[in-house]
Amino acid sequence: MTAELLQTDAAHTGASHTASTAATGGFLVRTARPDEYDRVGEVTYLGFGHGEPGATQPDAERLALLHGAAARAEAGDLLVAVDDSGAILGTASLLRADSALVRQSRGGEAELRLLAVLPEARRRGIGEALMAEAIARAREWGAPALVLDTGPQNERSQRLYHRLGFDRLPERETIPASRGGLLAVFRLPFG
After folding, report:
1. Is the pTM above the cut of 0.85?
2. 70-101: b or e for each residue (b if 16 or more CB lie within 10 Å)?
């Protein structure tokens, strides 16, 4: 996969965008548009596996969060990865420290939540591209670090976070995970 930073046009927030081209086709990471929020909610729900046959369904509060793309956009920057046709393949929510949606942020840290890629779009570097863009934007905001959490058994994501330079912070792991254990907390300091 190759990645390059593209300058944005005036229609976007002024942040850079990461374009990635893989053997299976290209995609672009950008801020979601309001007319895409419903689809972003669906992609988040599906990306967390809730659309699979026999999948466990989230409780009402979690379901509202997964589908609440507009609230996530208002709380920071709602990122999407789109293919050449504009179809949304993945999403991530970059939240400002003062957002009511953060659960790990301390001392002005930006927080990443709900990184999700459609099952059929995985293994194309989409999650990594969403992470790279979130890191770049959190730095642009002047945040001292980017923090996130993930399920303790989500080893694939944890490998990605380590590869991107995040450190695991067991001392901050206090929130129970839905499938047992405590959510694993990762932090990437900027400085």
Report:
1. yes
2. ebbbebbbbbbbbbeeeebbbbbbbbbbebeb
CA distances, 72 to each of 2, 3, 5, 95, 113 (Å): 29, 26, 24, 7, 9
Instruction: Reduce the DSSP state of residue 191 to 3 states and report it.
Output: coil
What's at 86, amino acid-wise? Answer: G
pLDDT tens by residue, 17-49: 455 443 335 899 999 999 999 999 999 999 999
Is the CA virtual torsion 72, 78, 83, 86 positive or negative?
A: positive
User: Which tokens sit at 156?
Assistant: 């694939």
Q: How far apart are the C-alpha atoms of 15 and 32, rounded to whole Å?
A: 13
**3-state secondary structure (DSSP) of residue 59:** coil
Secondary structure (3-state) at 76: strand
Rounded CA separation 34/45 (Å): 18
